[in-house]
DNA sequence: CCGGTGTGGTAGC
DNA sequence: CATCGCTACCACACCGG
């Protein structure tokens, strides 16, 4: 450490003067971030100023940080302004320039050390070593790179020739890579860290990456690329689905750790969606609805809406017979569709197959085969079963023709129900005379035309409301039509209740258990007709009860007229669910996956020109006691579902914003990565893209020439905006880098590079020119003094001291083009009068419940608890909550009395800090302990706790609480660390 | 009463 | 070897002011 004094201080000043304005600001900001870093050392440096007089020197302050340089945490820390800036640009350069860049970096670093009065002696631990990193590592490739060159080694990104590298660093290798690298010294990343920590090169063989089971686990999937093309050609004509079969070989090549296509693979989503019938079905439906909605809106613009005045509506329900099976069979003239049992499923007709049957023809149904059944099961019922492949393009083509024909009929309105199914109202096409004949004629010609155009049969149900048309359709099938125009109650009498729309297994079960406990056979609508309306409402609630009652009597007021109420038909949410193939080893993999899902969500949002202001994450977690691998291959098995949502202050359509929220929500739910079986992200509260820009105007103009600093209260105090934004985490980064490069990187690095790039590109005027007063004040006094003069010289203002009762939040928003806005919102600690979002989604119940549950479960006995009936279990859990609430312990008192501000939720300003930190830090920060997640605060709290209880010993509850916290940290460590 | 969140159910093949 | 168990919307329970 250098002594205090003029020379070094002046050289520091020199150094400062070499910086650009924004670099200087960044430097200061980076100090403040470092100050908040979680290592106890870093925390001490700033909090215990008095104890460490040497820190009054500006240089030692800087030095103290540089001392930490070797620790992974520090290196993985947030961008360090100029330091990282240079490194980032270095990183982006091509491989051939790398040596030069490395040298430049070293030289630059040396200069920096000199300027800052640091020891410039170069470490030579890795002298003579040429290091290459393969695959995903922790610390990241970028960190290792930096560590190596800072300690005398060389680093290469590509293994251009054999023997170019002396060491390869990897955590896992595919069998292929194992073979390729068998003559290299392949070591784990820890080798680097240990060598640096001990100051000497460690024996590589101690860190040798021998065999790792990861690759072997996946061996079963090998060689798909070689075997598949041939197999495919032997199969039936598949030209339509061609594209999805081609990438096989690519997939194998691009994988960096495995050849399987499960959720860890970057292309998993694409593959999955390409082959998921339900995905197709759902998206088709949504698209069709949107299309018709737009069509209707266009029409009403030009001609205005003509309300259907007919008192007696005529509703037509058209539907293909076993759609998928019929269309798929078109390509197989060798099959006698009318007499052979045919179904559609993946993967042929192997007797053990757990593939779902998407659709089966009526021959199958005679054997008891049903849609959704597994091939395995169906094969038992019907050994001659023929399984056809999906033909998604064929389905779309047929659907298109269907809708063309329907539109050509000029009905009063059309409501698409599904890809193959639509409701029409044709009241105005039918006269009052000879109604029945006219309807029959309509049905016959419709069926004929559709068959001629598609070679597929449809059935048609007609009646005077939607419900009865639907039930008529059931009767009409297969390949027929039915017009129900009289004797409705009689018609309904013998139909099973489950045929009613909206009545599924759950309602039927409830009926059986609560209304007809003695009924042995299937419950019919006739039986419901005998029930009182009030009775049904009591059991099922007002809405469902009423609906059941009315349906039972053939009453249905459902409108199919989009035009009459376009609002009701507009999309209110977008979601993506993946409950198949979800298998993860670590939270890092999940994080990546969440980003990929978010990307898909945002693609949809952008296509619709919408932004979302609420993100919901739903997960499926393997039920206790369910087998690790369920009977269905890569299925989700028996699961419990959990969901949690979060509001966005500024509506967004950026995948990083949404993805980041999802990551936080995931941590909130708290699911062991190994137990995760399903993921779903849902966005709601959609707002048109343009309006969302308006909404953000109160904060700052996108292209605001200067500071975006606002007093939340002054602006629009009647809107809840400021409250919302303080609850949210929004850190968005531009996607300028090549995405394939980014994908290789751990997300933290990715973020930092992005952020840095952004900074490089963004016009300076977009950067905040203020330095937060709080940040400033936390710097050692001597530094403050220097900065003050330097800043004065530059005409940069130092923010006023924030009033005590207010809170400062940063919301950093990056736009697609790379422009940026950093918003500083100062808002009162307590939200004003009305605050619909006062407590973020978690204030009380959810998060706490989940966390509590874990605590209890650990104590009570998880297994026992889970065996209990849900109602009883709930009771016990609630009791426990009550117990917890009434038992205030030392922690609670300390926290209440101490200055620990209640950081209510990760989803607040402090998680912005955490998210720009190293991944691991970030994860630590997402674990709450005693209402805070900031390690420095937790450390302080624990310290105080220990001091207070050193004589009497701690309260057992406190011990448990702390233990729970530690175990959570541990879980994360296991899954995140090498 | 309102409005919030979380959960569960349903439909299409 | 398999397999691709989606998605939008509604209704309800429960909570808190």
TrEMBL record:
Main subcellular location of this protein, as a coarse class: nucleus
List of residues binding Mg(2+): 319, 420-421
Skewed-composition ranges (Polar residues): 45-65
Subcellular compartments: Nucleus
GO biological process terms on file: DNA repair; error-free translesion synthesis; error-prone translesion synthesis
Region (Disordered): 33-78, 222-259, 707-729, 827-855
GO CC annotations, alphabetized: nucleus
GO molecular function, one term: damaged DNA binding
Family annotation (SUPFAM superfamilies): BRCT domain (SSF52113), DNA/RNA polymerases (SSF56672), Lesion bypass DNA polymerase (Y-family), little finger domain (SSF100879)
CDD domains: BRCT_Rev1, PolY_Rev1
Protein name: DNA repair protein REV1
Pfam families with a match to the protein in the record: BRCT_2 (PF16589), IMS (PF00817), IMS_C (PF11799), IMS_HHH_1 (PF21999), UBM (PF14377)
Cofactor requirements of the protein: Mg(2+)
Chain ranges of the BRCT domain: 121-209
Segments of skewed composition (Basic and acidic residues): 222-233, 707-726, 846-855
Enzyme type, top EC level: transferase
Acidic residues bias spans: 66-76
Entry keywords, A to Z: DNA damage, DNA repair, DNA synthesis, DNA-binding, Magnesium, Metal-binding, Nucleotidyltransferase, Nucleus, Transferase
Domain spans labelled UmuC: 315-504
Task performed by this protein: Deoxycytidyl transferase involved in DNA repair. Transfers a dCMP residue from dCTP to the 3'-end of a DNA primer in a template-dependent reaction. May assist in the first step in the bypass of abasic lesions by the insertion of a nucleotide opposite the lesion. Required for normal induction of mutations by physical and chemical agents. Involved in mitochondrial DNA mutagenesis.
InterPro entries listed in its UniProt record: BRCT_dom (IPR001357), BRCT_dom_sf (IPR036420), DNA/RNA_pol_sf (IPR043502), DNA_pol_Y-fam_lit_finger_sf (IPR036775), DNA_pol_Y-fam_little_finger (IPR017961), HUWE1/Rev1_UBM (IPR025527), IMS_HHH_1 (IPR053848), REV1 (IPR012112)
């Amino acid at each position: 450490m250098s002594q205090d004094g003029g020379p070094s201080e002046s050289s520091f000043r020199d150094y400062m003067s070499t910086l650009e304005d924004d670099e200087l600001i960044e430097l200061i900001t980076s100090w403040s971030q470092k100050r908040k870093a979680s290592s106890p050392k870093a925390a001490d440096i700033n909090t215990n100023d008095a104890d460490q007089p040497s820190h009054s020197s500006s240089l030692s302050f800087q030095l103290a940080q540089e001392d930490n340089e070797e620790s992974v945490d520090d290196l993985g820390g947030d961008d360090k302004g100029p330091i990282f800036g240079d490194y980032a640009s270095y990183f982006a350069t091509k491989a051939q320039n790398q040596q030069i860049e490395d040298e430049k970096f070293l030289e630059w670093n040396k200069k920096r050390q000199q300027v800052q009065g640091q020891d410039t002696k170069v470490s030579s631990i890795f002298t003579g070593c040429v290091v290459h990193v393969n695959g995903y590592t922790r610390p990241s490739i970028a960190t290792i790179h930096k560590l190596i060159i800072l300690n005398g080694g060389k680093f290469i990104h590509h293994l251009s020739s054999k023997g170019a590298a002396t060491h390869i660093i990897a955590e896992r290798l595919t069998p292929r890579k194992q073979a390729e690298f068998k003559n290299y010294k392949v070591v784990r990343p820890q080798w680097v860290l240990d060598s640096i920590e001990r100051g000497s090169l460690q024996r590589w063989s101690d860190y040798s990456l021998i065999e790792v089971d990861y690759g072997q686990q996946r061996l079963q999937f090998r060689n798909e690329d070689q075997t598949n093309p041939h197999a495919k050609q032997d199969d039936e004509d598949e030209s339509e689905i061609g594209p999805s079969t081609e990438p096989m070989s690519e997939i194998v090549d691009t994988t960096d750790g495995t050849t399987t296509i499960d959720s860890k693979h970057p292309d998993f989503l694409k593959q999955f969606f390409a082959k998921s019938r339900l995905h197709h079905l759902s998206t088709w439906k949504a698209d069709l609805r949107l299309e018709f909605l737009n069509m209707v809106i266009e029409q009403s613009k030009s001609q205005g809406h003509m309300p259907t005045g007919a008192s007696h509506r005529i509703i037509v329900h058209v539907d293909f017979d076993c759609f998928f099976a019929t269309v798929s069979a078109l390509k197989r003239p060798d099959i006698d569709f009318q007499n052979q049992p045919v179904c559609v499923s993946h993967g042929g007709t192997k007797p053990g197959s757990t593939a779902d049957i998407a659709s089966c023809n009526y021959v199958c149904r005679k054997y008891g085969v049903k849609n959704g059944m597994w091939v395995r099961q169906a094969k038992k019922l019907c050994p001659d079963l023929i399984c056809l492949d999906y033909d998604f393009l064929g389905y779309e083509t047929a659907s298109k023709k269907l809708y063309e024909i329907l539109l050509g009929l000029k009905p009063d309105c059309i409501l698409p129900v599904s890809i193959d199914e639509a409701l029409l109202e044709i009241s105005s096409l039918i006269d009052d005379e000879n109604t029945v004949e006219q309807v029959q004629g309509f049905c016959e010609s419709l069926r004929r035309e559709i068959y001629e155009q598609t070679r597929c049969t449809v059935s048609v149900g007609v009646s005077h409301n939607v419900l009865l048309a639907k039930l008529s359709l059931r009767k009409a099938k297969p390949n027929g039509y039915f017009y129900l125009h009289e004797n409705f109650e009689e018609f309904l009498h013998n139909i099973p209740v489950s045929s009613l729309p909206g009545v599924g297994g759950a309602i039927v079960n409830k009926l059986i258990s609560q209304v007809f406990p003695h009924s042995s056979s299937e419950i019919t609508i006739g039986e419901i007709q005998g029930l009182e309306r009030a009775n049904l409402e009591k059991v099922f609630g007002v809405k469902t009860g009423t609906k059941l009652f009315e349906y039972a009597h053939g009453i249905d007021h459902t409108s199919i007229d989009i035009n009459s109420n376009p609002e009701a038909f507009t999309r209110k949410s977008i979601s993506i669910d993946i409950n198949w193939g979800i298998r993860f080893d670590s939270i890092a993999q999940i994080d990546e996956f969440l980003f990929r899902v978010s990307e898909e969500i945002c693609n949809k949002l952008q296509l619709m020109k919408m932004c979302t202001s609420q993100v919901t994450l739903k997960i499926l977690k393997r039920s206790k006691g369910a087998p690790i691998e369920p009977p269905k291959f890569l299925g989700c098995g028996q699961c419990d579902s959990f969901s949690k949502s979060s509001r966005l202050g500024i509506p967004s359509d950026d995948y990083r914003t949404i993805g980041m929220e999802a990551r936080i929500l995931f941590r909130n739910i708290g699911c062991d990565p190994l137990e995760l079986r399903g993921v779903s992200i849902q966005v709601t509260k959609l707002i048109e893209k343009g309006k969302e820009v308006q909404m953000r105007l109160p904060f700052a103009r996108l292209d605001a020439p200067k500071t975006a600093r606002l007093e939340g209260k002054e602006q629009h105090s009647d809107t809840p905006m400021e409250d919302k934004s303080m609850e949210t985490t929004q850190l968005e980064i531009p996607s300028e880098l090549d995405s394939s490069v980014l994908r290789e990187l751990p997300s933290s690095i990715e973020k930092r590079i992005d952020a840095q790039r952004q900074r490089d590109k963004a016009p300076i005027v977009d950067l905040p020119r203020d330095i937060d007063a709080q940040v400033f004040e936390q710097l050692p006094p001597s530094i403050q003094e220097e900065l003050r003069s330097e800043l004065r010289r530059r005409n940069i203002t130092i923010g006023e001291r924030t009033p005590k009762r207010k809170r400062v939040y940063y919301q950093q928003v990056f736009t697609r083009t790379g422009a940026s806005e950093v918003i500083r919102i100062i808002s009162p600690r307590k939200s004003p009068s009305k605050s619909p979002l006062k407590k973020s989604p978690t204030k009380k119940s959810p998060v706490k419940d989940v966390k509590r549950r874990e605590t209890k479960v650990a104590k009570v006995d998880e297994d026992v608890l889970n065996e209990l009936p849900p109602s009883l279990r709930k009771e016990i859990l609630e009791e426990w909550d009550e117990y917890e609430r009434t038992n205030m312990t030392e922690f609670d008192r300390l926290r209440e009395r101490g200055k620990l501000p209640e950081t209510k939720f990760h989803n607040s300003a402090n998680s912005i800090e955490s998210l720009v930190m190293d991944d691991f830090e970030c994860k630590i920060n997402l674990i709450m302990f005693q209402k805070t997640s900031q390690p420095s605060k937790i450390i302080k709290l624990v310290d105080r706790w220990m001091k207070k209880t050193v004589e009497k010993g701690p309260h057992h509850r406190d011990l448990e609480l702390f233990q729970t916290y530690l175990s959570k940290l541990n879980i994360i460590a296991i899954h995140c660390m090498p």
